[in-house]
Amino acid sequence: MDPNAFYHKDPLKAINHFFTSDNMEPPWVLKQTPKGKWECSLELPIGDGHNGIIVEAEGDGKIGAKTYCALEACKGIF
Asked: Of 14, 17, 70, 72, which has fewest CB within 10 angstroms of its CB?
């Protein structure tokens, strides 16, 4: 992992660019946990062609969960 990678500054922007370059929207799935945190998952259109890779993360709010999820996705893509 490169701490100076471009996506560390704004992982949400990096993921949005990744998807919009293929005319797609990121398929975010957000769920609130019983403890009040948010879980986020995102299916990346990479892999064997039949199924994408699913990345998951948890955060204190919706934006936090999406940001952590985007960061994990960026680590897998870039």
From this structure: 17
